[in-house]
Design goal:
mainly alpha
Length: about 375
């Protein structure tokens, strides 16, 4: 047996003596050396085994890379990789998007009262289609969509066109106009609720400057046409003044997103087309109508589809501005507020699920109708 070198043996003996000496010193001081030894052992173990662990992780990643490379050479090409990368998003969409949709359809077939009730088939759908409250909430939703989408798109396009022609300070102004969209809808609604306050609100203060009597605004169930016609049009025709307040808030809140999208579309238009139109003697209106809008048609179509869907699903502004979503005499109760009230206030889960399913079908049908009628006029080249 080979004996260690004398210097090595002496080195080990000196180290052992030093360790024993330190241990005795710690014990005399009343300090237990066990935690210190355990910590030192853990550090030593990490130092010793970290390299093999990292080598193992590197080997696993290399095996996965080689497996993906072999999959790419097969007939399926990148389909397995794409499915693997999409699986987290598909799981989330399936759990929180598709599954609740099928659950709502299933619940709508039962007369559920707080989660308990018998099977009624299509009875909830027949009850909804025969309910005056359902049709009134649908009418409020239509008023809201027609009041917000066209006006917000028109105003956003005008503002975006003006911002696009500004060279200095465009970024600051773009951020300024985008702030309403990123602001919390509930927090912003509290500010607008104070503006429309019937006693101390800014809106009535402005009306007093021009000699117009104050209005009840969010508390007014009479229609806007009633006030504009001087009472000649019945008060129940058209959107109520309270609903018009919600429309004004939504136009203000949604315009920031539209302005940014329009600015991106305007930046993609070649400058040569605008210059050629000016050389031919076209004014701003002619250039916008014959050059800008045709090229911007995909952007306009996208904003129209998304804005209509959002208008039919709007809830936060209604609930935050009016306090309960329904407003005076239910004149601001749109479809989503009607669904919310049946679910959480009346406990009619089955009926609420049926109304939600009808709303979903209506939005899908309206979107397909937009694709059918407007999509043909979109120029993608």
């Amino acid at each position: 047996m080979r004996r260690p070198h004398p210097s090595v043996a002496c080195g080990w003996e000196d180290s052992l003596a030093a360790i024993l000496g330190r241990r005795m010193a710690l014990e005399e001081a009343g300090i237990s050396p066990v935690p210190i030894v355990a910590l030192a052992g853990a550090v030593l173990g990490v130092a010793v085994f970290s390299r093999p662990i990292l080598a193992g992780v590197d080997a696993v990643l290399g095996w996965l890379d080689d497996s993906f490379a072999r999959l790419r050479t097969r007939a399926a090409k990148d389909a397995p990789i794409a499915l693997l990368l999409l699986s987290p998003a598909l799981l989330i969409l399936g759990a929180f998007g598709v599954a609740p949709l099928f659950a709502a359809v299933y619940m709508s077939l039962f007369n559920l009262q707080h989660g308990v009730g018998p099977y009624v088939g299509l009875g909830n759908y027949a009850k909804a289609l025969g309910s005056p409250a359902f049709w009134k909430s649908l009418l409020v939703t239509v008023y809201f969509a027609f009041g917000t989408v066209p006006f917000a798109m028109f105003m956003s396009f005008i503002v975006a066109s003006l911002l696009f022609r500004i060279v200095r300070g465009r970024g600051v102004l773009r951020t300024f106009y985008f702030l309403p969209y990123v602001t919390s809808a509930v927090a912003a609604a509290m500010v607008w609720r104070f503006i429309f306050h019937p006693h101390v609100g800014l809106a009535n203060e402005i009306l007093s400057w021009v000699g117009i009597e104050p209005k009840q605004w969010l508390l007014e169930p009479r229609g806007l046409l009633f006030f504009l016609s001087g009472g000649r049009i019945p008060a129940g025709i058209g959107p109520s003044l309270a609903l018009c307040c919600v429309i004004i808030f939504e136009v203000w809140h949604a315009s920031g997103f539209m302005i940014v999208i329009f600015l991106a579309g305007l930046a993609a238009i070649p400058k040569e087309l605008d210059e050629a139109a000016r050389i031919d003697g076209a004014n701003w209106f002619q250039t916008t109508r014959n050059v800008t809008l045709p090229i911007l048609s995909p952007t306009v179509f996208f904003l129209a589809v998304v804005s209509v869907i959002k208008a039919f699903q709007s809830f936060n502004g209604f609930y935050a501005l009016t306090g309960n979503g329904r407003g005076p005499l239910d004149t601001t109760q749109n479809m989503t507020v009607y669904i919310y009230a049946n679910f959480y206030e009346y406990g009619r889960w089955g009926y609420g699920a049926a109304v939600a399913t009808l709303l979903c079908v209506g939005i899908v049908g309206l979107t397909l109708l937009q694709w059918r009628l407007v999509g043909r006029r979109v120029h993608y080249e």
